[in-house]
Amino acid sequence: MYERSTSTAAPLARLIEEFYRLPGIGPKSAQRLAYYLLRMPVADARSLAEAIVEVKEKVRLCSTCQNVTEVDPCRICTDSGRDRSIMCVVEEPLDILALERTGSYHGLYHVLHGAISPMDGIGPDDLKVSELLDRLRAGETKEIILATNPNLEGEATSMYLSRLISPLGLRVTRLARGLPAGGDLEYADDVTLTRAIEGRQEMDGA
Prior knowledge:
206 residues; alpha/beta
């Protein structure tokens, strides 16, 4: 919790508190952002506020792949040029941006919105797993690429999904180990991601 200073104007102190609640923002960064906005022209500040409200009001989850979108189904799901026989499963929407940036993947996606993490109280029921299985049972998909992050939570999630998917008779692969252990997909460079996609390996669902 950010500790208010009695010398700080109440509206400014509230803004600092709101910034401090954001992930990755410490007290000093929260203060710098708040004072930056204070010096910003009113029109620019209003434009920023409107953009935040617009995101909350218009952006939703795609009913098919669970990616963030302003239209449902999203543009990737409705793209007739996509290979509908292959589906890449990722943890977060940001991972899709990273993979799309490589230009080497042309299939569909499914976003789990997290990874299995007992320490954080996150289990399979907290992820978009049932939605994934519903899609796979529909019949178009032939291969699943499990593109969860190469860390403990990501590996546990991949193994869990592999065991669920294997009885459906689909090919299950995992991104190659070109990705650094403990890293996040969204931070990987394009060449590393491309090699990880091209060198993906079969997973044993046993």
